[in-house]
Design a protein that fits this description.
Elements: H1 9-56, H2 59-67, H3 75-87, E1 91-96, H4 119-122, E2 127-133, E3 136-146, E4 152-161, H5 162-202, H6 207-223, E5 227-231, E6 237-240, H7 242-248, H8 259-262, H9 267-273, E7 281-285, E8 288-296, E9 302-308, H10 310-348, H11 352-376, H12 380-395, E10 399-402, E11 411-412, H13 415-432, E12 435-443, E13 446-453, H14 485-495, E14 499-504, E15 510-516, E16 520-521, H15 525-531
Parallel strand pairs: 10-12
Antiparallel strand pairs: 1-4, 2-3, 3-4, 5-6, 5-9, 7-8, 8-9, 11-16, 12-13, 13-15, 14-15
GO molecular function: kinase activity
EC number: 2.7.13.3
Catalytic activity: ATP + protein L-histidine = ADP + protein N-phospho-L-histidine
Length: 532
């Protein structure tokens, strides 16, 4: 019958652990029995050697060997048998220098030549061995028999029954097996406990199921368009999918490192680390507006998901600008209607010269304002933004002025970034002030944007806090959150290697200054002269 390998993880672990435990115990038992057998053999041979030495030391044995003939009733046989019975030896054989037996357990063997080679003992050396003789297999020893002058007159051979040694070895096996069985039982119980715990941890799945789940998880994490970031209990990154690498501008080398080492200090790091609580938390990282949600895991870590809301935020701000322009156009529509009514009244009253002067005044005022912006700001997007914001300010009863020192004749590298910075600063000023002044300067390739207002100003203790994501003193609109405008401004400035700061305005209010290095492309002097 074919034995099938178990599929589930806990069953495989249990089977493997039991097999390993059994194999180890069998190996240990074998390693124990092998030296034990050798030790018992050694003990038996040394015992035989001691008996042989004791027999050879008997003082009357040499005299009887010289003065009598070998016979079953002789004194040598009697002395040898006495010692054999006293020591429990299998046999004691006394031989002369010719190898003829003078004593033996089997008296029929007396007077015959020994069955094994006696030359070593007769040559003066002692010998121990396990060998076969006329009485079967035995542990034996042979020693020379010397007279008082140390001359060799024969030899003594003593044998210990090997069966007794074998029986002693076999007698140790039951106890050894008992201990081995107890150790095996403990090992099996331990393996069963480990496998049950593993079963709970793996939910009874097989290795193939776990491997398939891992492959599916990797495919899912790296295919979704939402950033996923997993942290362990110590705040180290243990998983980072492709979208998270893109949004946070990290790579796979960040895996295994603490969050504080791979992200700069700020709101993003605070949100990801769980030090800011809430759902759909808004943060700005690397110039991107992100929505973060954090879910703790059972091991003390957490999984954070991030959604990119940069485009949506820009569209929301464009929507705000569009609403403002619509309001301004609606107000201008009323204003034009009033002017047309005024013009119609002047014509009906016959005051034609006054009507002409009124039309010329209105037309030149608008043309002068637009031409003034275009002369000082070369980029069309920035010029259009300033004209549009002027109309919105007028609708809100505020005044937006272009500083006489404004000069931005150079080509802007990325006008959208400057539009974002300038638009956010003007929008913030329109919410709190009635007088706003905008100044745009070019210092080489560096663009300096400065927006001042006559609002309540910013206390010194809050001048850093207002640039943090999510911080605002105003109520959030329905379609987007507050507290992102100034955060985006600072992130854009830092991305250019510049800075954004706020100071107090003389006479009250605030001055926001943004420095953007390398934001302009300086034109050659010849080109500037030709354009003029």
């Amino acid at each position: 019958m074919r034995i099938h390998w178990p599929r589930r993880v806990f069953a495989q672990v249990l089977f493997t652990q039991v097999a390993i435990t059994t194999g180890v115990i069998m190996l240990i038992t074998g390693l124990f029995l092998a030296p034990l057998s050798h030790q018992l053999d050694n003990q038996a041979m040394h015992q035989a050697l001691s008996i042989a030495q004791t027999t050879a030391a008997e003082p009357g044995l040499v005299r009887d060997l010289r003065s009598t003939d070998p016979s079953p009733g002789g004194p040598v046989q009697a002395e040898a048998e006495r010692i054999r019975r006293a020591t429990g030896a299998l046999y004691i054989v006394v031989m002369d220098t010719r190898g003829v037996r003078w004593s033996h357990t089997d008296t029929a063997q007396i007077g015959k030549h020994v069955s094994t080679d006696p030359s070593t003992a007769l040559g003066g050396r002692e010998i121990m061995q396990i060998d076969d003789g006329t009485l079967g297999r035995s542990a034996r020893a042979k020693v020379p028999l010397r007279d008082g002058r140390r001359h060799i007159v024969g030899a003594v051979s003593v044998g210990i029954a090997y069966d007794s040694v074998h029986d002693r070895l076999l007698g140790t096996i039951p106890g050894l097996l008992l201990y081995s069985g107890a150790a095996l039982a403990v090992g099996v119980l331990a393996a069963l406990a480990v496998s049950r715990r593993l079963q709970r941890g793996t939910h009874g799945l097989a290795f193939t199921d776990i491997s398939a789940l891992l492959d599916e998880r990797e495919a899912m994490l790296h295919s979704i368009r939402e950033a996923v970031l997993a942290l362990d209990a110590r705040g180290r990154i243990r998983l980072l999918n492709d979208e998270a690498q893109r949004l946070l501008e990290l790579d796979q080398q960040a895996v295994g490192r603490p969050l504080g080492e791979v992200l700069p200090p700020g709101r993003t790091a605070e949100v990801l680390a769980g030090r800011v609580y809430g759902a759909d938390l808004i943060t700005v990282c690397r110039g991107r507006v992100l929505i973060a949600n954090r879910m703790p895991t059972g091991d003390g870590g957490a999984v954070v998901t991030l959604r990119d809301r940069t485009e949506l935020e820009l569209l929301s701000r464009e929507l705000d600008s569009t609403h403002g322009l619509l309001d301004a156009l609606r107000a201008q529509d009323h204003e034009h209607a009033n002017r047309l009514h005024t013009l119609l009244g002047l014509l009906e009253l016959g005051r034609h010269e006054a009507a002409v002067e009124f039309v010329v005044e209105v037309t030149e005022g608008h043309r002068a304002s637009a031409e003034q912006v275009a002369e000082r700001v070369n980029d069309p997007l920035l010029s259009a933004l300033l004209v549009g914001k002027s109309a919105i300010a007028a609708e809100r009863g505020a005044s937006l002025r272009i500083s006489p020192g404004t000069r931005l004749p150079d080509v802007v590298v990325d006008p959208r970034d400057l539009v974002t910075v300038l638009g956010n600063l003007i929008d913030n000023a329109l919410d709190v002030a009635t007088l706003i002044e905008v100044e745009l300067l070019a210092e080489g390739s560096t663009a300096v944007l400065r927006v001042s207002d006559n609002g309540p100003g910013v206390p010194p203790t809050m001048r850093e806090q207002i640039f943090a994501e999510g911080w605002s003193t105003k109520e959030s609109p329905a379609h987007r959150g507050r507290g992102l405008g100034l955060a985006l401004v600072r992130r854009l400035a830092e991305r250019y290697g510049g800075a954004a700061r706020v100071t107090a305005r003389a006479g009250g209010g605030a001055v926001f200054t943004v420095v953007l290095p390398e934001a302009l492309t300086v034109r050659p002097l010849t080109e500037v002269g030709e354009s003029r």
